[in-house]
Amino acid sequence: MKENNNELLNWLFKTFAIRISSHDKPFWYTSGTIGPYYINTHFLYGSEEKATDLLNYINKEKDNKLSCPQKLLSETYNNYKTDDVYRGLIDKLCLFIKDNIDINDIDYISGGERRDWFFSLPISKILKKPHIAIYKDLDTVVSYDGKTENLESLNNGKVLHIADLITEASSYERAWIPAIKDKGGKINWSVVVVDRKQGGEELLQRNGIKSLSMIDIDIDFFKKVLSMGIINDEQFKMLEKYLDNPKESMKNFLIKNPDFLEKALSSETKESERAKLCIEKNIYGLK
Fold first, then answer.
1. Torsion of the alpha carbons at 44, 45, 46 and 49, rounded to the nearest 10
2. Phi, psi of 220 (to 5 degrees)
3. Cα dihedral sign for 82, 44, 186, 181?
4. Could you tell me the pTM of the whole model?
5. From residue 100, how far is each of 10, 112, 177, 189 by CA, in Å?
6. Residue 4 pLDDT
7. Percent of the chain scored above 70 by pLDDT?
8. 43 Cβ partners below 8 Å, 6+ apart?
9. Which domains does the chain possess?
10. Residues 40, 13: contact at Cβ < 8 Å?
11. Is the dihedral of CA 154, 158, 164, 167 positive or negative?
12. Which of 126, 201, 203, 225 sits a CA distance of 20 to 30 A from 163?
């Protein structure tokens, strides 16, 4: 657990950006796997409801690639002025960037469709840097001083990419890095709120990108959460086993709790579909 992040940690749980399951009922993930926590970092926009509303707004506006960034900047900056959690987070991110990167070295700030924009747009305004919106189809537009235009060339510009979280960095590899490279620039730094410590940092390093995160989801993080009374000993033990070996720990859980899978299969919720997927793919080798 990184130092001086108690306030951020509290915000993560206050907004349900991180949820931790009870020790006897892990979450079903869309992949058909199970696990003891899940993360929706964009809930730090203030709440799940606010974050969902903004995602819906993005979905309506993103096809208008030149007008979308300015409209989103207006939405996010208005929320920055009125929501204490979101404002606190953005301010912390700006300080974190200044503490770790020479601001004068940054030519552009980029963010990828969609959740990155929750954070990259207001930060670009506060730090007074041009913002590059990268779309999933690798189209790029640059915004500055209230104007947005198609990005033609970065002329070897140095780019800071801001994202909500990093897992395996597949979006970076597939889209963000090549989109910037194609315009003659380079992502030199990546700043995220949360690093899930699942290989993303290593991929970025192989691509010559300095990876910086405010929160790392590792055993020290959960030790801190335990010490603050947010989780209990049983939850911590499950988390510890999961971090050590996600597949084996959840396989052992299913073997010890056969009714867990049976209840999910017979439920009338999305858990049923995920449990069926688990069986069809034989994810845990239980056949």
1. -110
2. -65, -35
3. negative
4. 0.94
5. 23, 21, 21, 10
6. 60
7. 99
8. 15, 16, 17, 51
9. 6-39+220-280 (no CATH), 42-217 (3.40.50.2020)
10. no
11. positive
12. 225
Tokens representing residue 52 in the block? 């969902």
**What is residue 80's predicted lDDT score, i.e. its pLDDT?**
98
The separation between CA 265 and the C-alpha centre of its own chain, rounded to angstroms, equals 30
Q: Please state, in angstroms and as integers, the Cα–Cα distance from residue 246 to each residue in 25, 235, 241, following that order.
A: 15, 15, 7
Cβ contact 167:133 at 8 Å: no
Tens-place pLDDT, residues 217-250: 999 999 999 999 999 999 999 999 999 999 999 9
Pick from 121, 96, 100: nearest CA to 111 = 121
Q: Tokens representing 8?
A: 């951020």
Cβ neighbors of 253 (< 8 A, separation 6 or more) are 26, 34, 238, 260
d(CA 163, CA 117) in angstroms, rounded, equals 8
Of the candidates 78, 95, 84, the one whose C-alpha atom is nearest the C-alpha of residue 5 is 95
Do residues 228 and 9 touch, judged by C-beta distance below 8 A? Answer: yes
SS (H, E, C) 68-134: HHHHHHHHHHHHHHHCHHHHHHHHHHHHHHHHHCCHHHCCEEEEECCCCHHHHHHHHHHCCCCEEEE
pLDDT, residue 2, reads 59
What secondary structure does DSSP assign to 209-268, as a single string?
A: -EEEEEEE-SHHHHHHHHHTTSS-HHHHHHHHHHHH-HHHHHHHHHHH-HHHHHHHHH-S
Question: Which of the residues in the chain have pLDDT under 50?
Answer: none
Contacts (Cβ under 8 Å, ≥6 apart) of 146: 70
